[in-house]
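Hi, here's the filled form for the chain we discussed.

Project: internal
Contact: R.S.
Residues: 115
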Amino acid sequence: MLSALFLAATPAAAVPTVAPAAVPTSFQFTPVTFGAQHPFVLTIIQALFILVSVVLIVLMSMQTTKNEGLSGSIGGRSESAYRGRLGFDQQLTRLTGSIASAYVVLAIAYFLVTR
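And the returned structure, exactly as it came back:
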């Protein structure tokens, strides 16, 4: 045991180590995407996508339910016969549809930019 400690304590002659040359074992090709070439465009699309997502969530939560119950089915809907100015619910429905369309367009644009 003492001999092992003695050998460990004595400095050994430094043996130069030669690192083997770096040889690639596998070749991975990562294509350069449009988003990698133009990070500003990618950032704008990501920011708009997040903004449209939040606005869509808010608009969906503001929507009223279309279930009128039994009174709506017996009495009928009086506003379906008269087409005047759009009410708040109809405007909100149109705005929600437009924002949902923008969401889909931005999702496709994000896919194409990062592809």
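Let me know if anything looks off before we file it.
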